[in-house]
Amino acid sequence: MERYQSYDSYRRDNRDDRRDDRRDYRRDRDDRDNSYNDQKRRKYNNGSHTNAPYRAPVDPVTEIIVVDPNDATKTVSLRERSQHIYQSMLKLTKGNMALEEDRGRAFDRLRRTFRDLCQRKLGIEDPKECFNRFIMERHILYPYGQAAGADACDPLIPSSTPPLPPPSLFREIMEDVPCKLPWPRNASQVFQNIVTFADSARKFLSRSADQSGFEAILAGLEEAKQWSLKNRNANLTQEEAQAYLDTLKKECEPYTTPIATPIITEICDQIVTEADSAAQQLVSSRTKTIDSPPHVRVHVRQSSSEPSSVSVEKGSDYFRLHITIHDKLRHLFEVARGAKLTTPQDEEDFNAALWALHYRYRTLLGGLRKFEGSGLQAAVPPSTFDVLTKVFSVSMECFASPFNCNFSNFCSVFDDIDIMFNSSGSFFKFHPVEGSFEVNPPFCEELMEKMNVHLETLLANSDKPLSFIIFLPHWMTPPSVPIEYLKTSKFLRASFIVDANEHKYCSGFQQTGEATRAFTPVHSSIVFFLQNDAGFSK
C-alpha cells in the first residue's frame, strides 16, 4: 500500500474517487442509525441501563507534558498550563449567566429557522444531526471566523466563517433531495421506497418554472412507480429491487440538482447570516454582566423507582442529573481549582458553573428530535479505557466533555466553560510532546480531516514517546477519505476492525437518565495506533 508523505498529497490524489457513491451511503447510514438505536434505547443492554453505576474520572498517575502556550520553545506540565485560566473563567461565567440564557434562545431560534427553511423551500425535513454537525464543525474548524480573536466571537454560535456556503451543510441537505427514504429491511420496503421516491421526485420537479425537457424523466418516474406496484409481490430479491431504485436515483439527479442548488445555497447563506448576526449581538452584550449572580439551588432527591438524581434549579428553570454524574463534575471542578469545596462560597461557585455547563450542552444538543445530538457525544465504554490504561498507559482523551470523560484530563469543545471542569480546551489548540492519548472524535469528515493533519504534525514534531489510539467508524461504502488516509499514514503501527455486534458505545445522554447508557452501533469500528519512533520503541 502506498504511503503518502503528507495529508495534502493524499487528498489531491483521492479527492474525486468516491464522490459518486457517497450520497446514497450517507442517507442509508443515518437511516440505519435512527431505526436501530431507537429500538436499542427501549431495551436493556447486558445490564447497562441508566440505573447502572457510573464511576469517577480517573486521575493520571504521570504528568502530561505539553508545549508552553507562552513560549513554543519550552514545555510545561498540563497542570501548569490550565491552572491560571480557571479563576478568570469562573468569574466570567458567574457574571454572564443571563447571557448564557440569551445564547440558548438565539441558538434555538436559529435551529428552528433552519428546519423551517428546509420544509418551506425544499419540502423536506431538515436532515437529522445536520445542524448540530454544522455548528460543531464550524466552531472547531474556524473558531474565530473572520474575527480578530476569541474576544470578538461567541463561544457557541459561529461568526462568518469561510468557506461559504458551508460544504457539510450544503452536502447533507442535497443528499436528502427530493426526499429521505427509510432504511429497508426487506424487498417489500424497497418497493415502497420506489413509489415514495417517484412521487417525491415528480413533486420536486414541479417546482421548476421551466418544464421543458422533463417529459422523459417524468415518464420514467411514472413507469418506475407502476413497475413497483406491479412487481411488489413478484419473486424479486431485495438486492434486485434496490438496484432498480439506485438506477432511478442516478437518472433523476441531473434534473433535481440544478433546481436544488440555488435553493440550498440560499438556505445556507441565510443560516450563516443569521448566525453571524446573533453572534455579534451576544458579543456586544458580553459587557452587560450581572454583578450579583442569581442564586442556584441544588436539591438532592433519591428515589427507589428512579435513579438518584440531583435537581439544579435557577428560578423557574431546572434540570436533573444522575447523582453520580453530579459527583463526577464536582470532582472535576475540585481538580481544576486545586482544592476541595469547603465554604458556602465554594458551593455557590460550583453550582453556578454546573448550571452554565449543563445549559450550554443542553443548548448544543437539545434538538427538535428526541435523542438528537447523542451520537456526537457518544464515548468509548469504561472497560475499554481500563485496557488502554493498563496496556498502553493512556491517561487523557482528545475529544470528550465533562459529562462523558473517563479521565480527569481531556480536551473538549468549549474553552470558556469546560475548563472549569479541568478540560484542556480544544484538541486543535493542544500540543502534547509526550504521552499516550485516546482519540474518539465526533464522526464528521471535515473534522476528522483536520484531526489527521494535527495528529501527524504532533507526531512529526516530537522526539519523545508519543502515541495516539484512534477509534473511528469503519465506513466502507463508500470509503471515507480521512479514514482511508490513516491506513497509509507513515506513523501507523497497527490497526484492527471490530464488528458492529461485538462492541458498544456509551450514549451521549448518559448523564440525564433519558437514554440507555450503552448502545450497539450499526457499523463496525476501526482502531488505529499512531506512534512516533520513540513511542513505538517504548
Describe this structure as you would to a colleague.
It is a single chain. With 538 residues, the protein is of the alpha+beta class. Helix content is 48%, strand content 12%. The strands form 3 sheets. The protein has a 6-stranded mixed β-sheet with strand order 2-1-6-7-11-8, with helices on both faces. It has a 3-stranded antiparallel β-sheet with strand order 3-4-5. Helix 4 packs parallel to helix 11, helix 7 packs antiparallel against helix 8 and helix 8 packs across helix 9. About 5% of the residues have low confidence.
Protein structure class = alpha+beta
What is the CA–CA distance across the termini?
26 Å
What's the mean pLDDT score? 79
Poorly predicted spans: 29-53
What's the main sheet like?
6 strands, mixed
Overall 3D form: globular
Task: Output the number of helix runs.
Answer: 16
Q: Which strand-content bin applies to the residues?
A: 5-15%
Strand order of the largest sheet: 2-1-6-7-11-8
Strand tally, please?
A: 11
Q: Report the C-alpha radius of gyration, rounded.
A: 25 Å
Oligomer: single chain
Helix share bin:
40-55%
How are helices and strands ordered from N to C?
HHEEHHHHHHHEEEHHHHEHEHEEEEH
Keywords for this structure?
single chain; six-stranded mixed beta sheet; three-stranded antiparallel beta sheet; 16 helices; 11 strands
Topology:
Blueprint: H1 7-14, H2 19-40, E1 65-68, E2 71-77, H3 78-95, H4 97-122, H5 130-141, H6 167-175, H7 187-205, H8 215-231, H9 238-284, E3 297-301, E4 309-314, E5 317-322, H10 323-337, H11 344-365, H12 382-392, H13 415-418, E6 432-439, H14 445-461, E7 466-473, H15 481-486, E8 492-498, E9 505-506, E10 518-519, E11 525-531, H16 533-537
Parallel strand pairs: 6-7
Antiparallel strand pairs: 1-2, 1-6, 3-4, 4-5, 7-11, 8-11, 9-10
Helix pairs in contact: 2-6, 4-9, 4-11, 5-6, 6-9, 7-8, 7-9, 8-9
